[in-house]
Amino acid sequence: xxxxxxxxxxxxxxxDYCRLRAVAGLTPRSAAAAAxxxxxxxxxxxxxxxxxxxxxxxxxxxxxxxxxxxxxxxPEHQGRGLGHAIVGGLMEQLRRLAPAExxxxxxxxxxxxRLYAQHGFEPxxxxxIGMAQWLGR
Length: 137
Ligand SMILES: CC(C)(COP(=O)(O)OP(=O)(O)OC[C@H]1O[C@@H](n2cnc3c(N)ncnc32)[C@H](O)[C@@H]1OP(=O)(O)O)[C@@H](O)C(=O)NCCC(=O)NCCS
Known about the structure:
- The chain is of the alpha+beta class.
- It has a single domain (about 5-115), classed as Aminopeptidase (3-Layer(aba) Sandwich).
- The protein is built from four helices and five strands; from the N terminus they run βααβββαβα.
- The site of coenzyme A (COA) has 20 residues, from strand 4, helix 3 and helix 4.
- It comes from Rubellimicrobium rubrum.
């Protein structure tokens, strides 16, 4: 990530959160869901370019377990190291925060597993398989 980008320990504002998820191709989330969930963020990173949010990532959890979520970079800023800066920043914060041993998991979409593998994550399959469902959709 070059010096035109700045990395902030910051929870993304609702509007930036919804926009970044959508432009990065992640399932769009409503402003209502974002407003309810974002204040419960445990650690977060926003990457800004000319002051504008162009990348983000968050982790949620309780000290025993954490989940890395919402890692997204605007397409025109992808491939410049922002993903590494975001995931690295989240893991640094979690290492400082975790009171004892902690389990950190995530669901890797498509080729994003290559990014996470470089930050210590290993596939859980075949021993265990991530499972998920939506409520209220
Ligand atoms: C995945 C994503 C966050 C990576 O961000 P990025 O800024 O492009 O990442 P970086 O430039 O730091 O590259 C990090 C690694 O990501 C991988 N990567 C690069 N472009 C990628 C892409 N378009 N999709 C997936 N992975 C990609 C590469 O393996 C790269 O590793 P390298 O260091 O060996 O080259 C970004 O591509 C994105 O927002 N994708 C769409 C949303 C998404 O899939 N989010 C992850 C949900 S789990």
